[in-house]
């Protein structure tokens, strides 16, 4: 019963692909086939595969049905986290999605699911991504203050949603947690954030996140051990489409 994770599939079986990176970066060429091959080699029927957001470019449910069919066809138990591009998924309608796909997919938002004696908790998250102003040496010397203020409101909303997940799991008797985000837990300006503080408050053993694409972005946030918690990036292109084993 191993646990694997990967994010940012950005499937587009029914939609026109407009993302420049996916159009030009060799790492994205036939990535759906590469990922499926890895899953079929690694993931057993009793394993769990957590997909950490940005599943589809479809903006409506009807535009991403084939993308979800692809995910359904992968081996193992599938858990989906909400990403910033998952327009088909209204956070308030998560219960309806879970009812619709009961026994097939689990949508992780304002709830939790179990893995052995762990509770898997998570939310999309958010972080301030600029714009930043840099000098000729590439050092950040300023940023857009208005956008940072707006980002703080979204961070607070996502932190409240994450706390709901932790509290629901705690009420159910769980004391061990794995925490999942789509966005990184910190911005490039931060060493700590409300998300790292929540992970420490509830004693999460690991924080797994995605969203950071391209070699220039892979180290925008925490990777490795920080204040007793292991932080792991699982963006698909970072992992070269091989899902990361979180637990044996």
Structural notes for this entry:
It is a single chain. Helix 5 (145-171) packs parallel to helix 6. The termini are close together. This protein has a single domain (3-247), classed as Metallo-dependent phosphatases (Purple Acid Phosphatase, chain A, domain 2, 4-Layer Sandwich), CATH 3.60.21. It has helices spanning 20-24, 31-42, 65-72, 94-100, 145-171, 194-202, 236-239, and strands at 3-6, 48-51, 77-81, 105-108, 112-115, 118-123, 132-134, 140-143, 176-181, 204-209, 224-226, 229-233, 244-247. Helix content is 29%, strand content 23%. The chain is globular, with a radius of gyration of 17 Å. It is of the alpha/beta class and 248 residues long. It has 7 helices and 13 strands.
Spatial sequence of strands, sheet with the most strands? 5-6-9-10-12-11
Q: Which overall shape is indicated by the principal axes computed on the Cα atoms?
A: globular
Rounded average pLDDT: 92
Q: Termini distance? A: 7 Å
The CATH architecture name reads 4-Layer Sandwich
Number of domains: 1
Number of helices: 7
Query: Uncertain regions: pLDDT < 50 for 5+ in a row?
Result: none
Query: SSE string, helix = H, strand = E?
Result: EHHEHEHEEEEEHEHEEEHE
| Helix/strand class | alpha/beta
Strand segment tally: 13
Portion in strands: 15-25%
